[in-house]
Structures are given as C-alpha cells and as structure tokens.
Amino acid sequence: MKTIYAVFFTAAILNFSRSEAQTITVCAFSSYTNEAKLYQSFSFDTESFRTIENIFGFGFDVRKKFVDENFIVGLSAEYLSLKTHYSVSLYDIQDEFTIVPIELSSYFSIPISSETFYWNVGGGVGLYFGTRNFHSELATTISQIPGIGIHIGSSFEYYLWENVGVRADIKFRDAQFEATNTFFSSSDFSEDNYTSEIHVDGVLLSGGIVVRF
After folding, report:
1. What per-residue confidence (pLDDT) applies to 16?
2. Which pTM does this prediction carry?
3. pLDDT (average), residues 36-62
4. DSSP line for 57-103
5. Can you tell me the distance from the alpha carbon of 4 to that of 205, in angstroms, rounded to the nearest whole number?
6. What is the DSSP letter of 113?
7. pLDDT tens for residues 121-159?
8. To the nearest 10°, the Cα dihedral for 33, 35, 39, 45?
C-alpha cells in the first residue's frame, strides 16, 4: 500500500508542476484542532477511548489556479503535536503523538470572488504519518502505520497588497494512524503486542500569510 500511495502522490506532484497555471500561491500557516481520540485494544482503566483536546500545529501549502483561476489544485504539509497524561495505580502515563498530514486538494472559487478576495470550497485526499512516544516503564512502541483519508473544507483569502495577503481555512477530516505497543512482562499485561489508533477528527481552523506569484 505504501508503494501505491507513493506512486499516487508522485504522479500528482508531477502533473501539478507541469501544468500551466495563471497564479501560484504559497502559504505558511498555523492551525488549531479542537479534539482528537485515542482508541486502543488494551485499557488502563474503564475508558474505551480517550479524548485529547486543543491540538496545535503549523504547515505550508502551494496552490495553482487553472481555467481563468476558477479551479485550484493544492498540496499541503503540516506538523501536529498532541499529548495526553493520566495516572493508573503506581504508574504515571504520558503519551506524546506527532502527526504529519500530506494532503492533495482541489478547490473551486465561488463567483463572488474578486481580485482581492477569494472564497474557495473543495476537498481531497490525505496521507497521515504519525509517531507515538510512550513515556512509561510499562511499554514501548514498536511500529507505526500511516493512515489515508479524505477531507472537505473552505478557505478565504484577502490580499492586503497586490501579491501578499492573509488566508483563513476551515477543514473537516480524520487524520489518523495506527501504532503497535509491546508491554513488558513486569506490567499487569501479558508480554504481547497491542494495537492503538489516534484519530484527529475535530474541526480544524487555520490562518496564515499567503504570497502569490
């Protein structure tokens, strides 16, 4: 599957770079997602999953506009960091996760857009790479498997000067990956492999500076 994902994104990037576009935009942004969920096949307590709130990140994207600037194709990369902390019996548990979403999107400009204001709506596909750092003597993480998913969203651009402006985005997605943990025999669990999944499935809001060429 990783080979298929690599071929898909490589082909998309090559087509993206060869196409003749009227406008190219580059945006650096910061993001906020209201919540994520941690599901795992083992349980330290009675909760079937844990909710993690207030996830912050940053990233950049590149977009090209086609067909009289009404159709847009974009490629973005982000870095998200989230933590959860809890105590069980004599153990103090701290999980740290990082997720790197790579997303290919297409947008259409709403007709009310102008030379200084653009309102775009669209969606696309994403590949989500993640890591889990298990700060505990109970277990260690031995593997992480990236996830794939779709997203929809809308963006607003306003140009303060001819080529420099601001952009705000709202996006709905499920950025997720799978991790495998091995527990040590000294813990209350058998020495075996357990699977967990992290899903950053809340509403994403982002804003940043955009430059067009």
Report:
1. 47
2. 0.81
3. 80
4. EEEEEEEEEETTTTEEEEEEEEEEEEEEEEEETTEEEEEEEEEEEEE
5. 30
6. -
7. 999 999 999 988 876 666 677 788 999 999 999 999 999
8. 140
Please give the Cα distance from 170 to 33 (Å, whole number). Answer: 10
In whole angstroms, how far apart are CA 16 and each of 19, 33, 62, 192, 200? 6, 28, 10, 45, 28
14: confidence class by pLDDT, cuts 50, 70, 90: very low
- With CA atoms as reference, report the closest residue to 80 among 152, 128, 37: 128
Place of tokens 């500076």: 209
Surface-to-core class of residue 23, CB atoms within 10 Å of its CB (0-12 exposed, 13-18 middle, 19+ buried): middle
Percent of the chain with pLDDT over 70: 74
Question: In the structure encoding, which two tokens stand for residue 70, read together?
Answer: 């009404």
Q: What amino acid occupies position 137?
A: E
Distance from C-alpha of 182 to C-alpha of 184, rounded to nearest angstrom? 7
Dist CA 118 CA 155 (whole Å) = 8
Delineate the domains of the chain, giving CATH numbers in brackets.
2-212 (2.40.160.20)
Q: What is the pLDDT of residue 90?
A: 65
